[in-house]
Amino acid sequence: MQSPFPSLDFIREQLASINRRLQHRDGFRRAAVLLPLIPVSGDWEILLTRRNSDLPHHRGQIAFPGGSVDEGENCMQTALREAHEEIGLDESRVEVLGCHDDIWTPTGFVISPVVGVLPDAEGLQPNPAEVTRLFTVPLSFFADDTTVQRQFIRHEGVNREVFFYPWDGETIWGATALMIRNFLTLLGMIGDVPKPIS
């Protein structure tokens, strides 16, 4: 099989080289998500979920596996625990490459994305109480500027650019789209991501 682009070593090196941007906002809950990469035919595919519409936060939205950080956990432990709870992912199948920049959401969360590699998506079982769909999207799709739709949404008196990606009947937007774009910027695949508002 053709090696995926960008290479695993390059992604690991880029994550190790950054001065990771941390967010601290009063009254916000800390959360972490797993940004899962799967090598497929010379590309990476990103594994995504559709959240159950009965959940209290971000209901029905497209998201990475993740959730609130429990006391005593770091972001990597949270991301792996939540991925196991939500999609049945055994942490032994994940090669964690590192954490990327925090982002914050208007719903009151500061989210730390943890980048990890899976050999494949075999055996994953969505927990129906939390996840109604599990699917993958090629990383190259997000790097193609013709696939993105942009909209400015005003929040706390500031216009914030929000990105929307239509894919197979779903819309990937908000925090999930921003984390993907931040990751692509780190890899040099796009270059126009605004810095998170602090």
Structure description:
This protein is α+β, with helices and mostly antiparallel strands and 198 residues long. The chain has a domain at 8-137: Nucleoside Triphosphate Pyrophosphohydrolase. Helix content is 21%, strand content 36%. The protein has helices at residues 8-17, 75-87, 139-143, 174-186, and strands at residues 29-40, 43-51, 62-63, 66-68, 95-99, 103-105, 109-117, 131-138, 149-155, 158-167, 170-173. Strands 1, 2, 3, 4, 5, 6, 7 and 8 form an eight-stranded mixed β-sheet that branches. Strands 9-10-11 form a three-stranded antiparallel β-sheet. The N and C termini lie far apart (43 Å).
How much strand content do the residues show?
35-45%
Q: Distance between the terminal alpha carbons, to the nearest Å?
A: 43 Å
CATH class wording of the domain at 8-137: Alpha Beta
Oligomer: single chain
What does the overall shape look like? globular
Low-confidence stretches: 193-198
Question: What is the count of helical runs?
Answer: 4
What structural category do the secondary elements indicate?
A: alpha+beta
The CATH homologous superfamily name of the domain at 8-137 equals Nucleoside Triphosphate Pyrophosphohydrolase
Largest beta-sheet characterization: 8 strands, mixed
- What string gives the helices and strands in order? HEEEEHEEEEHEEEH
Strands, total number:
11
CATH third-tier fold name of the domain at 8-137: Nucleoside Triphosphate Pyrophosphohydrolase
> What is the CATH architecture descriptor of the domain at 8-137?
Alpha-Beta Complex
Question: Roughly what percent helix?
Answer: 10-25%
Q: Rg to the nearest angstrom?
A: 16 Å
Overall mean confidence score, pLDDT: 90
